[in-house]
Automatic annotation (TrEMBL):
Belongs to the glycogen phosphorylase family. NCBIfam families: P_ylase (TIGR02093). It catalyses: [(1->4)-alpha-D-glucosyl](n) + phosphate = [(1->4)-alpha-D-glucosyl](n-1) + alpha-D-glucose 1-phosphate. It comes from Rhynochetos jubatus. This is Alpha-1,4 glucan phosphorylase. GO terms for cellular component: cytoplasm. One of its GO terms (molecular function) is glycogen phosphorylase activity. Its EC number is 2.4.1.1.
Amino acid sequence: PQRIYYLSLEFYMGRTLQNTMVNLGLQNACDEAIYQLGLDLEELEEIEEDAGLGNGGLGRLAACFLDSMATLGLAAYGYGIRYEFGIFNQKIVDGWQVEEADDWLRYGNPWEKARPEYMLPVHFYGRVDHTPEGVKWVDTQVVLAMPYDTPVPGYKNNTVNTMRLWSAKAPNDFNLQEFNVGDYIEAVLDRNLAENISRVLYPNDNFFEGKELRLKQEYFVVAATLQDIIRRFKSSKFGCRDPVRTCFETFPDKVAIQLNDTHPALSIPELMRILVDVEKVDWDKAWEITKRTCAYTNHTVLPEALERWPVSMFEKLLPRHLEIIYALNQMHLDRVAALYPGDVDRLRRMSVIEEGDCKRINMAHLCVIGSHAVNGVARIHSDIVKNSVFKDFYELEPEKFQNKTNGITPRRWLLLCNPGLADVIAEKIGEGFITDLSQLKKLLDFVNNETFIRDVAKVKQENKLKFAAYLEEQYKVKINPSSMFDVQVKRIHEYKRQLLNCLHAITLYNRIRSDPSKSFVPRTIMIGGKAAPGYHMAKMIIKLITSIGEVVNNDPYVGDRLKVIFLENYRVSLAEKVIPAADLSQQISTAGTEASGTGNMKFMVNGALTIGTMDGANVEMAEEAGEENLFIFGLRVEDVEALDRQGYNAREYYERLPELRQAVDQISSGFFSPRDPGCFRDVVNMLMNHDRFKVFADYEAYIQCQGQVDQLFMDPREWTKKVIQNIACSGKFSSDRTIVEYAREIWGVEPSATKIPPPNLPRD
């Protein structure tokens, strides 16, 4: 079959035990067996460390895709790096984030199997020799890539795929080969330098940090993986049987490489290098093979997230790849110049090489010219990709550009994390929805069914009680389980606008304070997420949230009508607990900034209602469920663009809206930081003078919309009917649907729902 290779620098897998039991259909059997041994399975599950080899959405998407590809019976492999330290553990100390190393392998990892027999060399540095026999990359430093395989089971279909993660190993002659009188001890200690490549995950979400070690990581995973792909291609039964395989014509029919963002973009020049320099394929033929093999998924339109590597760094680290990129760019620009004679500005805009004080390689441009398909991850994002980010490229090759709206695996994100809800659904419509989530549509027949309404509400209440107990046990915080659980969990970033949530919390607090006898809908506002260690504003936002909590949660006038809780160390295993307990899901990024979002989908399928902007997949969620069944507010993309042209003036909103002014004044005066009144001056200064994400512009609509949320929450039956409507319309957001679209429209393969026979039965 055609093999699919999903290349990603991140796989945010979480825990594996329960997922494996669910997919093998063994959960009840194991539960019973463990119980008979006098143990509690849930207690055992809590011992497992999360595999936190990702930052957020992009890494978790890769994990969901692996589950769906296995469940759909695709011959797919996930390839990445086995980081010794994943995303840091977050501690909150005095209201500030403090990072701790995530030593997740401390007690070993039972799910992985080292495969030293497939160890491969990866080359760095050196120089390029142009000889009559061809091009040689010589005098390189070698690092070995040791593969570790983790099984990826499909859902009850007896398919098990592989995730192969590479670990860096120094060769035994490392630093000893130099004709040095040098220090043997020093040389052995220097092995660490090579092995540092797979030491730690870079903790940036939607932000590019041009560090040499990160470029090494990117090339390391690409070089090892491509050798593996080509070894497997050559040893397969198909194609010509030359002792030395030189016919690569069939390569794109047998291999599909999906690039998860630009991080593995070096696959393009590396495949060219192997085909041209090593396998002696003609340049133009090699380029055709490369383009037909690779496809690129874009994950963000934020300019600060786009990878732009200094040419000088490439020159030193990957000299041959730099030559290849120059040649590819020349070929590309010649084509553009022929089609648009005299349009020098277009050539500048479309070049892979950016000229300037520091020449840079634009990895996104490299991906677009080197791929046969480019996709965004939600319809609105794919439109922005075509009409602004890659507008010139879209005009050149419109057929290249596609949309593939993200999805989530219903195995982990419904069956595993919310068995109560899965049960009441299965009671009504059977179990088919687990592998065909569109079947949730059948629940529309039960929107007015009193027993079903009661059952869905009961499951939610049980989940809330369980989560409240967990918070009390773990963090010693007591919350009111009958309050509205208002949740915003995601990485902390200005564009995600946790600050807008803060302003609502302060406004709510001020309203209660100014009329304590009035009746208010009780809320527990929970905000969780990690800030990149070097992202000052994000760390200030966490401090602000914890500071608001200090004041609000200790004010006797407020009582249990309002609580503000910061959820420490948000990660996959915590998401599995909080999402099923949420009533309200906050998806409030500035329109046009969140490419898709996937947390939004998890909340929807788990029976929370969404308050959100028309951004990312929220647009399609509103389309599926009906806009009246979500709480949609705020500027649309067109409005944001209009405001940019006109000029966004924060002070205008500050002057016009008394509740906003009061909240901002409280933050800046030190009301929430009495021991350090100037604590939040940077935050206020940003909001007032250079807020790229227009928090104030959406404040009024947001507060008003939150009022509608309160109104509906006071009518539990109507609320639950909207919940059922949402669940029933969430089927589109299964990663199974997403992967079927990738398979048919990008990879050219048909997924199969057929169960292969189990290993204990003879095969046909």
